[in-house]
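Standup notes
- DV: blocked on the single-chain target, sequence here:
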Amino acid sequence: MATAPTKQSLLHLYHSTLRTAQSFSSYNFRQYFVRRTKSVFREIQNETDPAKLAAFYEQSARELAQLKRSAIVNQLYGGGRLVVEKQQVEHERSDS
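- DV (later): unblocked, structure below
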């Protein structure tokens, strides 16, 4: 019989996945993985079956590892910011 992961460990996995999704440099990938993470964890929110929770936790941990690797590759080859993203204001230095 599989033991169910604690609520705290599921929350930690959720926050780690969201943090990793936010680290993508491409806007489309970043938004997709944030939306997907929220919807997947919302579906399992009211689950009480320990076997299903354990299987979900294992699968989500594997997906997190894959997401981390993908985010690193995306950061290496990421392009410029899109128009829909908030632009950071660059302050000019004046020498006078």
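- Follow-up: The chain has one domain: 7-76.
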